[in-house]
Structure formats: structure tokens, C-alpha cells
Design goal:
about 625 residues; alpha/beta; 4 domains; single chain; Heat Shock Protein 90
Amino acid sequence: MNASQTDTTLHARADQIYRDGIGSSRASTDRMFAGLMLLQWVGAVLASLLISPRTWIGETSTLHIHVWVAAILGGVIASLPIALAILLPGRAVTRHCIATAQMAFSMLLIHLSGGRIETHFHIFGSLAFLAVYRDWKVLMTATAIVAVDHWARGLWWPISVFGTTASSNWRWLEHAAWVIFEVSVLLLAISRALHDARGVALGRAEAEQRAELVGALVDARTLQLEEARAEAEAASRAKSTFLANMSHEIRTPMTAVLGFADIIQDPSLTPEQRNAHIQTIRRNGEHLLGIINDILDLSKIEARQMGLTPEPCCVRTIVAEIESLMRIRAAKKGITLESRFEYPQPASITADPLRLRQILVNLVGNAVKFTESGSITVVVHAVQVSDAEPILRVDVSDTGIGMSSDAVARLFTPFTQVDTSPTRRFGGSGLGLAISRRIAELMGGTLSVRSSPGAGSTFTLAIPTGDLSGIAIHHQPVAPLAAPDAARNDSRAPRIEGRILLAEDGTDNQRLIAFHLRKAGADIEIVPNGEEAIRAVERADQDGRPFNAILMDMQMPQMDGYDATRELRARGCTLPIIALTANVMQGDRERCIDAGCTDYQTKPINAPSLLGCIALHIERNRSTTTERRGSPEAHAA
């Protein structure tokens, strides 16, 4: 709103306040005059009784005609103004009727007193009262009535107005002059009062406007603070979630890396076993390196320090390399991975090959991760070479689980995962897609997604090809490139005699932990989730071969360790349940203990610490069980 509109609105509001104030004042004055009319009627009757109480005609005494005039005429004069003051307060017709009636009472009193000069002062008082209306038209009505009355009665009935029988053509002018003098003073007072009222109305309007502006500013600031608080809370939650996920994502492969690094030092291993352990270490080490690189890449992007190195690169070669790298992973899940090119295609484009490969590896890797059955297709669409700014478009489509619109909306937000629950089936740091989109934008392109639950997803990368002048259009695929191939022996480790249930969904961690437990002498049964753990405990009790302790991973699919522990405790299980988790944030230990766990061990595991913890709690549980069996209560039972 500009200054002119603000000024117009201000004066309109001031006029409204002024009219409301004057209207309210005049309605109140109407009610005052209604009471005054009734009082003057009674006063006229009393005055008539006092001045002309009775007359005598011979021996007969009767009320004087003045009494009847006061009673009847006074009632007539007062009735209509009183009715209008009650029914139509604040109206102009009410004010003018009251002014007429008020002057009529002045005439009646003057008549009843025989024109005594004292009663003429009633006129001046009435005019002063009528000035309360702050309406000059009302005073004009009253003045005109007084002038006409004094002129007419002064000519034809002077005794009723001047107290003399001699008529005068000019005496009424003398009275009229005094009335005009008072009215002039009252008009000046009314003008000043109306001016002051307008000033008060303008001041109130300005105060309201200031209050409204202040209120709007306060509301806006409050909204900003609420939004800032909501953003801060969301950022805090995202940070906590990210740290928890990163802790899990880092510690889980670290468990395999450190654990198998200890194992390969065992001289009793065969060369094949040693090589398999080395490959496990390398695979998990590469995974850790990828996480670290993602974090560093995002930091560079946020700090605007990531640079690109555009150079000629062959898209067919990059796609063939990625297809070769990912085909083994896809085959293990029973899904097909294929690439398809639409023509024409340039032999090369100008782009950063390392970053282009990074984006496509992330997209294809995610497609493999989130697809349980079906296929993954990489389609490189035709490039319109004749366009002023040719665009390369690559679609990565899968038949996986798909996503809802809400999930898509937050998909490219750093540190955010579609599924953040402890039972999520798919891991990840939540950085890959955010980094891929940022890199695509740095390259002058876009990264978008189309998806729906259960119907798979299609990610589309579109980047400029650069100048294609002199670039041949390549129609033959290059040959696929070959894909690169993906514990200390501690004699002091305690012996464990008994059966241990290991609930762990990670294959490498299952092998690592089972190795240490079997080496310590334990009999091991492995289950991949909480539901299987509950069934295994029940089955072992029914077979008469109960477990001595349970190692419970806290993040597993289908049913996590927290719910499984609560369910086991609810069913009366008293076995030691040792939490095994990569979450080491503040409060995670307490959360495990609150769920019913006996103790808490972190990933990467420390074999002596884990074995010592298990041995300690097995021995304590056996001692407690022996004490219960030897107690008098047990014998009595």
C-alpha cells in the first residue's frame, strides 16, 4: 500500500470514528431530552397550579384554565419527542422535533407566567441545552420558532409573551437580538467542538493505524521467528538423524574391516579363506571411502569450492563401464541391467567425465539397491545436434519399490532418507542424490525423478553437450570395459560354553561375529531379524536346548532389536540380551537398556570385549538361576 492509499484509508477511518462519535453523542442527548421533556411537563403543571391554582365564580371554585393547558398541552408537546428519542435515537428528525418541543415548553412557561421576564431565560437555557447536539441546523430551527412566536404573539397577544396589553411591532426584535447573540456564541462553540472532535477522531485513527502497523510487524516478526524456529528444529532433527545414520553406515562396514583384519592374522586359515577375508575388507573399505568422499563432495559444493574439469569424453564408454560394474550386483539379486542408445549420438561431449560417471554410478547403484525383481534400463536419448544448445538426456529406469510424492519432495535434500525408521530395509547416508543433483546443476543441467509407489522410478539426467562442431556422430558401441574386482589372534579371549543366538542381518558381520564366538567355544545359531530371533528362542526352549545368551543387532528389517527385545521380555525370557549396534550417539545405550537389554556392545566390535561381556553375563545368569533353584521358596514350591 502506497502513501496516498494509506492517507486515504486513514482519513476514511477518521471520518468513520467522527460520525460514530457524533451519532453516539446525539443519541445520548436524545435520551437526555426525553427525561427533560417529562420533567418540564411536570414542572409546567406545578407552575400552573402555583400561579393560577383555582378561580371563583360566585360560590363555585374550579381549576384555572392554565392548569388544564399545562396538563394537556404539555403532554402533547412532550409525547412525540419522547417517543422519537426512544424509537429513533440519533436521527435528524428526532433532534428537530426535540428542538421544536423544547421551544414550545419555553413558550408555554412564558404564557403561564404572564410573560414574566424571568421565564424568558428558559429560552436561553434551552438553546444552551440544544447546543449539546453540536448541530447548527437544530439551533436554526429553535431560533426561527422563537422569532416567529415572539413576533406573532407580540402583535396579537402581547400579554402572553411580554406581560402587557399594549402590542409592539419592535419589542420582539429586542428579544430576538439577544437570542441571535447567544446563538452566535453557541455556533462558535459548536464549530470549535466539531473541530476538536475531528482532531480526536483523526488522532484515534492514527493510533489505530499505528497499532495495526505494529501488530502487523509483530505478527510478521512472530511468523518469521516461528518459521526460523521450525527450520532450526527441522535442521536439528535432520542433523541428529544424519549423525545417527552416518554412525550406522560407517560403523557397520568398519565392523567387517577391523574384524576381518584380525581374522586374517590367524595362521590356521587356508589361502582361500584368507583371500575371501581380504576381499571383504576391501569391499567394506571401498564403501567407507565412498561415504567419506560423499561428505567431502557435499562440503565442497556447499562452500562453492567444487571445480569441474570439462574435457571431451565418450558417453558410451562411461555407460559401458558402469553397466559392467553394476551387472554383477544386479545379477546377484536376479534382476537384469541393460543400456540402450537412441540416435543420433555424438562420439564425444564436453563434460567432466569423473563427475558424470559419479552421477550415473549413483543413479544405477540406487536402482539396483531399491529393485527386488524385474529390470533396470539406462536409456541415452538422441541428441539434437542441430540445436543451438544440444542436450544429452539419460534416463535410469527401474521396476523397484517406487516412492510417494512426499518422499520425492524430500529426496534431494542432504542427509535425508525416504525411510528413517530402525526397520528400514535399505541403508545409505542420504547424500548421494543430493550431491548428484548439485553436480548436475554445476554442469549446467538438471536431475529430476518420476516415481509412484510400487511402479518403480525413472531418474532423468540432462546436461549440455558443449560445442559439437567437428564432432563425429558415433553409432557403434565401444566394447565394455572389464569391471574392477571389488583379527588379531588373541589368546587371552575367554572361553564361552553354551549356545548363543546371534540376531544380525549383515552377512559379513554374521561371519565375523560367528567366527569369534565359535573360536571361543560357543555353539552359534544365526537369524537375520527380530521375528526369527523370537521364533528361535521358542523353538530352542521346546527342544530342551535353550540358549545361554542372545546377541541382538538393534537395526534389522521386519522387526528391529528394540521390538524383539521387548517382546522376549514380555514373554518371560530372562536370558542375557546384549545389544549389538553401530549407534553410539548420546542416549543410545539408555535406549537399549530401556528396551530390556542386559548390556550394550558397539560396532565395530572389539572381540575380547564382546566375548568377555558374553561370558560375564552367562556366568551371572547361571549363578542367579542356581541361587533361585536353591532358595527355600524353590524347595517349598
